[in-house]
Write a structure and sequence with these properties.
single chain, about 90% helix
């Protein structure tokens, strides 16, 4: 490299030795090969990063789908439970209404009986 600097600066007017030119050309060739290899590695890394990103997107979408399915299942189960509770309370309400109706009929009947007995006693 020191010779190269002196060549550029023009300090030495003699032509460089053929071995030095060959060495420099070899270095340039090697550097080009290294650059091609580094560029290829860079492209490969970019491809791998793209694949990793796609895999992460798919994994996230699958997890989201799974979570939604779970929530839907829980909502459906809760809906079924609510319908069952509504049915049970409707049945209890009907029974309670019937008991109230029967008791009112009994009260009315007893009042009528009491009135008849009072009238009979007079």
């Amino acid at each position: 490299m020191a010779m190269h600097c002196s060549l550029v600066a023009g300090a030495d007017s003699s032509p460089p030795p053929p071995q030095t030119i060959a060495d420099l050309e070899s270095q340039v060739y090697k550097m080009k090969e290294d650059l091609v290899q580094v560029n290829a590695q860079h492209k490969q890394q970019l491809l791998e990063l793209g694949l990793l990103r796609d895999e992460e997107k798919q994994r996230t979408a699958a997890e989201h789908h799974k979570a939604l399915s779970k929530v839907r299942g829980e909502m459906e189960k809760a809906g079924v439970q609510l319908l069952q509770m509504e049915k049970e309370y409707s049945e209890k309400l009907a029974k309670t209404s019937q008991v109230i109706s029967d008791l009112q009929a009994s009260v009315t009947s007893l009042q009528e009986e009491s009135t008849r007995q009072q009238l009979s006693a007079e």
